[in-house]
Amino acid sequence: MIPIHPVTLDAHSHKTNDSMNSSDNRPDKPEEACGVFGLYAPGEKVAKLTYFGLYALQHRGQESAGIATFEGTQVHLHKDMGLVSQVFNESILDELPGSLAVGHTRYSTTGSSRKANAQPAVVESRLGSLALAHNGNLVNTVQLREELLESKFNLVTSTDSEMIAFAIAEAINAGAEWLEGCIQAFHRCQGAFSLVIGTPDGVMGVRDPNGIRPLVIGTLAGNPVRYVLASETCGLDIIGAEYLRDVEPGELVWITEEGMASYHWSQKPQRKLCIFEMIYFARPDSVMHNESLYSYRMRLGRQLAQESLVDADIVFGVPDSGIPAAIGFSQASGVAYAEGLIKNRYVGRTFIQPTQTMRESGIRMKLNPLKDVLSGKRVIIVDDSIVRGTTSRKLVKTLREAGAIEVHMRISSPPVTHPCFYGIDTDSQDQLIAATKSVEEIAKQLQVDSLAYLSWDGMLKATGEDTNSFCSACFTGDYPVTIPEQVKRSKLILEKVVV
């Protein structure tokens, strides 16, 4: 019998050390789950192409990275904690031969930040190994885990991604072929999942029936044409691949030596792309709905200016995500655009905590004000969102210390009032500042002269799409996939304890 280890269900933060669990160190931005990448390209150095694809998707996760390649039936895997450039080098990539690859860069949401939870998840089946990379979160993890444990699977991580892989293996071991087995497994999964799956026979790209997290298809020139899968189009651009189309909600694409085939495995797909992908998560040079997100975010800023203009000397954005909206605000309002904050672009995610003395002296690892630009000025600062408000308050204090005589904050999205359960790391609802305070109360807490959010109607106008085609539960509480009450009450996170 395969040994089964007991688990505890931890309703607290996914971070595993005390310093990271401190509320002061929790991110004051929504944090994305992961970036996925895959390709089928015989004759190419697939590991190196995947490395560059993950490099372009680094903004989607900075805690761990991994690549699995298939050389016939043999799978080669390397994954570790750290940035893509820290996990891989030339010699490691040379040890990952093959004709197809699956890659992943991770920010932990379900499952703690440790090497065992790095992806791709590789499991064995009757038909050979499969390597799975996952972006998103399942909401039925408790039920699915219990089912897999009853089937005597030895779950070695605390991630829902591994559960999807084992659910596929269970169907395969029961006699199904790859396509049939995968589709059986997907019907057991509830929530958000964009997947890239490598097998000895080919690579799959899959989206859940709502398409909550993105996944695109690209092509590499050659004979025959080779196909690429990535979370965003910037992952295609970096390797010279041409964008073909999105993987549709409820679609599975199967890429083999015969080309690419499409299967619509869900009978009731309904597009619900996460609106925050457009507002904040995806890189501004990525394309969604036939335009760059830079252009879209500028449009949000122009709409914001129409709704909440205030007399000021300069307007600037919080680097980097607030800059396009700030430029749009300037264009629509006539208020001069300037750079008021400089970002240290060489700072990635760090697990080294500053000392108390450094905190007290106002350590500024990521942003530093331009005092000569700000001194004596009435300023408008534009950001994409406020989650807890802690960082925003510190930022306002920094601007005043730099000499700003008025600070007006403008947010290019509506108030975040509900937590996400589909792959975005947000606090429980009582920790979301807009869930417990009015705009006036938030302005007082942040110590700004004025505060305004983009209206719901203004966001829809700027988006130019039917509201029903997006998941906007963080603004409305209207979740497209039902959240079990146990999960909703506790913002449930699976955490495995081996005894």
UniProtKB/TrEMBL annotation:
Cross-referenced InterPro entries: GATase_2_dom, Ntn_hydrolases_N, PRTase-like, PRTase_dom, PurF, PurF_N
Cofactor(s) the record lists: Mg(2+); [4Fe-4S] cluster
Annotated region described as Disordered, given as residue ranges: 1-29
Residue ranges constituting the Glutamine amidotransferase type-2 domain according to the UniProt record: 34-258
Co-factor: note: Binds 1 Mg(2+) ion per subunit.
Annotated residues for binding of Mg(2+): S321, D383, D384
EC number: 2.4.2.14
Pfam family, one: Pribosyltran
Active-site residues (renumbered): C34
GO molecular function: 4 iron, 4 sulfur cluster binding; amidophosphoribosyltransferase activity; magnesium ion binding
Entry binding sites for [4Fe-4S] cluster: C274, C420, C471, C474
CDD domains in UniProt: GPATase_N, PRTases_typeI
Record keywords, A-Z: 4Fe-4S, Glutamine amidotransferase, Glycosyltransferase, Iron, Iron-sulfur, Magnesium, Metal-binding, Purine biosynthesis, Transferase
Catalysed transformations (reactions): 5-phospho-beta-D-ribosylamine + L-glutamate + diphosphate = 5-phospho-alpha-D-ribose 1-diphosphate + L-glutamine + H2O
Record-stated family: In the C-terminal section; belongs to the purine/pyrimidine phosphoribosyltransferase family.
NCBIfam families: purF
Protein name: Amidophosphoribosyltransferase
Source organism of the structure: Atlanticothrix silvestris CENA357
Source organism phylogeny: Bacteria, Bacillati, Cyanobacteriota, Cyanophyceae, Nostocales
